[in-house]
Amino acid sequence: MSDNPIRINKYLSQAGVCSRRQADLLVEQGRITINGELAEMGSKVSPSDQVFKDGNLVKKETEEKVYLAVNKPKGVVCTTNSKVENNNIVDFVNYPTRIFPIGRLDKMSEGLILMTNDGEIVNHILRARNYHDKEYLVTVDKTITDDFIYKMKNGVPILETVTRKCEVEKLGDRSFKIILTQGLNRQIRRMCEALDYRVRTLKRTRIKNITLDIEKGKYRPLTVREIKDLYN
Predict the structure, then answer these.
(1) DSSP symbols for 10-26
(2) 89, 122, 150, 202: least buried by Cβ within 10 Å?
(3) Domain that holds residue 43
(4) Of 49, 91, 106, 229, which one is the catalytic site residue?
(5) Are 112 and 212 spatial neighbours (Cβ–Cβ below 8 Å)?
(6) What is the pLDDT of residues 33-42, one digit of tens each?
(7) Domain contains 164
(8) How many C-beta neighbours within 10 Å does residue 85 have?
């Protein structure tokens, strides 16, 4: 870490606590203190300062960075909140080093989720302008029509916006593949519901150059090439 003062969200990110976005939420919730005082948005941290999260000292991490690909089963929640007992993603993976998920995959969905202790790569990946491909296999509750495929490809009104154009391929009467470049909350489920369909199964099979090639419930480290490509 630099010897110069840095913003609290960057400090928490570099310390491997969470992403900058998550750090801002922690500050808003009054869960971060600096030298005994509640942190505010934009607060600066110097090397001599003591930062606490939920009353626990945040230590500057010097450990090796970890990057994992995890095949998340249904029922596991992508959160670092330990109050979600037994089925939060951190406890499920049970990695010896503190790590957190990059982005989300909702509880009833399965497939590829990335985990790391590198807050800076999280910030990079979550920026919408990076347009990282994310590929999913989906089954729905009734026969897929040409009109459904057309509308899914060209944008569906949800969450007071219209989804970006995307690639959609019909695979069977009730199954399709979709490649998104954005990550709205429960996006595919909401898109389907807006068109009067209900998702039955949803599996993420790829994030950019990283494919789902591990058994359900297992994980593997990313290769050097995969990590480098995530930054492009």
Answers:
(1) HHHHHTTS--HHHHHHH
(2) 150
(3) 6-57
(4) 106
(5) yes
(6) 999 899 999 8
(7) yes
(8) 8
